[in-house]
Design a protein that fits this description.
Distance between the termini: 22 Å
Shape: globular
Radius of gyration: 23 Å
Order of helices and strands: HHHHHHHHHHHHHHHHH
Structural class: mainly alpha
């Protein structure tokens, strides 16, 4: 039974991550699949809270506090309040008059202009919260070891699927969703930009595998085979990033690649004085991947980023979003309400068949939906995350540091991409980011594991623990 529990602890985070990626690659589709994933998440969360003890330490409690703040904010937007209080806020008077014209005079109104969408947004927190708890609630040596290879393996699978989607253009079954970038390598996602974001998040974990290889390098056949395997993983991910045709992906590739190389060069005790030329190998892989993509006629012309200034461009959408924010900055319009409210502020003369579901600037959309309270919560989280990430990159190396640094680099990708898109509105990417956040903060040992943990602020256990 002990061996079975250990195997389950290693497999469970990876299996849950696979489930989320198979069901949560889109924001507008797959409601039934997302409901199933939510139910599974709820069961796993209950099990972790009941049967896994000693993992809610101060370092872990900080991200959980931010999650609680998000839930509290959403619930506050659903609290029924007197109409005279609600209608004093901008935009609410019009909504109340509309209800009266329909013969309805509610005695109570919620702050949210789209209460149902707000409730659904609150339910969406289940999967990322479960992913975080799985990493934090299981022993580091069991969960982290599986994720260090599972994340890049998922990336390779998504990149391979994307390549098949481009090569076999007449096979719609290769796409997971109806509303998608047909003809583009979207992989597990409905959006090629989100595919690029995911593959970029996977890249630092190849650096972890390279760091492990450097530590254990003895020059034997097994080491050479491992090196070839790591190189192939890196090449496929780079190829997939470049093939996705995402302008944001291209802009983020250089900093993420540098961070990935830095992860691979994390100072660790080595069994041999021989050095694996990580920088040279990385440069060669990038050059070969770029040459392969940009010389292929089948991959030419990919990418649908609108860099113009039209109504459906990012600049045009941001202008409308800024207008909404200027009117609703006090209390926000309600979580999940952006698409409904956006249609009220569009210029009727510029409305087209293009449906604007999100702001393509998730920070702007968050501020529109949550107002001042959301702005304070977001600022506090970003400051905490920056301090935590900076602390990881400033510390001397140990057996866990390469994985923690890779997790921080992976989290940076959606934080940057959210300036021009909405990756964290996609359940799969949000869950992966939550699991990476857990890798940044959980201690290697918990109470009752046989050795006292180090200070919670460090988020580390005794050195020399095998991952």
């Amino acid at each position: 039974m002990g061996g079975l529990r250990q195997t389950g602890a290693r497999v469970l985070p990876a299996a849950f991550l696979l489930l989320v990626f198979l069901t949560g690659g889109a924001t507008l589709e797959g409601d039934v699949a997302k409901a199933v994933t939510g139910a599974v998440s709820g069961v796993l969360l209950a099990g972790l809270c009941l049967f896994s003890k000693g993992w809610m330490k101060p370092g872990v409690l900080v991200p959980l506090a931010f999650a609680a703040g998000f839930v509290a904010l959403g619930l506050a937007q659903l609290v029924p309040l007197p109409p005279e209080l609600i209608t004093a806020l901008p935009g609410r008077q019009t909504a109340y008059l509309g209800l009266e014209a329909l013969g309805q005079s509610p005695e109570r109104l919620a702050l949210s202009l789209a209460p149902e969408a707000t409730a659904i947004s609150l339910l969406a927190v289940l999967a990322p919260l479960c992913g975080f708890a799985l990493v934090a609630g299981l022993r580091w040596s069991r969960s982290a070891q599986a994720l260090s290879w599972m994340i890049p393996a998922l990336g390779v699978a998504s990149a391979g699927l994307g390549f098949a989607q481009v090569v076999f253009t007449g096979v719609p079954e290769l796409y997971f969703y109806d509303f998608t970038n047909t003809g583009s390598p979207t992989g597990f996602f409905s959006n090629a930009n989100h595919q690029a974001s995911f593959l970029l998040m996977c890249l630092p974990f190849v650096g972890v595998l390279a760091a492990d290889l450097r530590r254990d390098w003895e020059g034997g056949d097994a080491d050479v085979a491992r090196a070839v395997g790591v190189g192939v993983l890196g090449f496929i991910l780079l190829f997939g990033i470049l093939a996705a045709g995402s302008a944001a992906g291209y802009l983020m590739l250089a900093p993420v690649a540098l961070l990935s190389v830095s992860v691979a060069l994390t100072r660790r005790q080595s069994k041999s004085r021989r050095r694996v030329p990580v920088i040279l190998i990385g440069a060669v892989l990038l050059a070969v991947a770029a040459a392969s993509v940009f010389s292929s006629p089948r991959l030419s012309g990919l990418g649908a980023t609108d860099l113009g200034d039209g109504p459906a461009s990012r600049a045009g959408m941001n202008r409308v979003g800024a207008g909404i924010l200027a009117e609703h900055w006090q209390a926000g319009t309600g979580l999940g309400s952006y698409s409904d409210v956006y249609s009220l502020y569009e210029d009727p003369e510029t409305v087209s068949r293009i449906y604007i579901a999100h702001a393509h600037n998730d920070y702007l959309e968050w501020l529109v939906e949550t107002g001042l309270a959301g702005a304070a919560l977001l600022a506090a989280f970003l400051l905490w995350w920056l301090a935590r990430a900076a602390g990881l990159w400033a510390r001397a190396g140990d057996d866990a540091l390469s994985l923690r640094r890779a997790a921080s680099a992976a989290c940076l990708v959606p934080l940057l991409h959210s300036l021009v898109d909405y990756p964290l509105r996609t359940p799969a990417l949000l869950t992966l980011a939550a699991m990476c956040l857990a890798l940044m903060v959980v201690p290697q040992r918990r109470a009752g594991d046989g050795a006292p943990p180090r200070a919670a602020e460090d988020g580390e256990g005794p050195r020399g623990i095998e991952l």
